[in-house]
Amino acid sequence: MIKSGRIAIIDELRGLALLNMIVYHFLYDLAAIYNSGPDWMFSPKTEIWQEYICISFIAIAGISIPYAKNPFKHGIIVLACGIGISLVTYAFMPEMFIVFGILHMIGISILLYVILRHPINKINNIIGFIVSIVLVILTWNAVNGYLGIGDFTISLPVIESNWLLPLGITSGSFTSADYFPLLPYFFIFTAGVFLSDWIKRWPLWTRKTHIRPLQFVGQHTLIIYLAHQPLILSCLYLYFNFIAPQ
Q: Does the pTM exceed 0.85?
């Protein structure tokens, strides 16, 4: 079934990414807060899993935004949700304070896209995608204090404040439970933007619904994303404090 010209497979992939994130956060909360769960939760392989989940979210956001009816409004809503999460974590869970998380990054990326949309549209999609991927690689270690790869690196300035934290340049004292700076993740977003035009050429079956519950999750990602951590934490609290001791 085709609905309102949407590409259903994008909603389904977004829904799959969100379900993947929910599983990760459940296992992480189980291990980090209650010292339970699998032993491999803090292994390097799990970090790769976490990075894959977030990269898929960001890339899909980039793919989807050219089809948004009002990208500016969407960007403001996403950024406002990110700021709301920061305020809630600061007030009620300071040990999990989120300063510049994935919603902040996606919201600002969308607003930058709105500002730069016309020059971006003039760039060849293949060239834009390749340049985006190259920039992802070159800026991947910005949070570690340098740009480039191998023997070809440039050290970033060492600063004692965090006013450049959206770019990935922070002081040694900076901490955040969820941190996704614009470098390198904005370029993952732009890689998705340059892929979006290619998706128009996907065959008709990609616009049809294949797994309706998955599509539903993908169409309501923001609401479910905002609700899933409080729900997980509440369920774990009830289990470990009232059910498990019995």
A: yes
The contacts of residue 22 (CB under 8 Å, 6+ apart) are 228, 232
CA 38 vs CA 21, 24, 116: distances in Å: 16, 11, 44
Closest by Cα among 22, 14, 18, 15 to 229: 22
Q: Are 10 and 64 in contact (CB under 8 A)?
A: yes
103-160 pLDDT, tens digit per residue, is 999 999 999 999 999 999 999 999 999 999 999 999 999 999 999 998 899 998 878 8
Spatial CA neighbour of 9 closest among 226, 236, 204, 235: 204
Q: Kindly indicate the confidence band of residue 3, based on its pLDDT and cuts at 50, 70 and 90.
A: very low
DSSP 116-174: HHHHHHTS-HHHHHHHHHHHHHHHTTGGGTEEEETTEEEEPPP-SS-TTGGGT---TT-
| Interacting residues of 146 by C-beta distance below 8 A, sequence separation 6+ | 153, 154, 155, 156
Phi, psi of 11 (to 5 degrees): -60, -40
Token pair 């289990």: residue: 239
DSSP 210: S
How far is it, in rounded angstroms, from Cα 24 to Cα 97? 19
The answer to whether the beta carbons of residues 211 and 12 sit under 8 Å apart is yes
Per-residue tokens: 204? 């008709």
Burial of 181 (0-12, 13-18, 19+ CB in 10 A): buried
Provide the total of helices (H) and of strands (E) in the chain, helices listed first. Answer: 8, 2
